[in-house]
Amino acid sequence: MSDRTERLAQLEAEIVGCFACPRLVAWRELVAREKRASFADDTYWGRPIPGFGDPDARVHILGLAPAAHGANRTGRIFTGDRSGDFLFASLHRTGFANQPTSVHADDGLALRDAWITAAVRCAPPANKPTPVERDTCLPYAARELALLGDVRVIVCLGAFAWDAALRLLALVPGVAVPRPRPRFGHGVVLDVPSAPMLVGCFHPSQQNTFTGKLTPPMIDEVFLLARDLAGLPPVELP
Questions:
Q1: pTM of the full structure
Q2: What is the pLDDT of residue 2?
């Protein structure tokens, strides 16, 4: 195990053992006990969700928070729900994942050149963390980004992740985030000196994918752009 991998594992253990936000702790555990009827036989994870992927990643993918019956159930970010199905299918098509599906933590999925995480690590009620919960959790992402070391691009899935990424960069020594803060938009690229570039992408929520606000070609275009900006070899879509 490399030193980077070992340190990431240590951070993962710290994240998984976090009880800092009482409201989130109560909600994640309540959901894990009561469950959704279709997952009644599943053993829910019911804890904070660590990051997942390639420790040598050049592309960092940042989401909002775990889904109550997705990652909060499976223990892997963006796994076990429709948003994750849409996301990982694109990551497979664009050369970042070895398979197009993410079903559970032991399904053989591996990421190449990508690391995926969330700004808030516990499933929040109504999918809306409070500002205090957001700020309490953000230092985990800052430490994670520092440990990854090779990240050149952060793909922000939605406006909340875009805002979180700007707050994250503001914690990096020597980085000056522009003011007023640049607005989120799909396909928007922000190049901040001495920091990874940010790329905006509509969140792969059912609301966006079912209405056509985010389509497979649109999300594929974002990840192909991220590959190019990160200096990764190009891939041809299937």
A1: 0.96
A2: 85
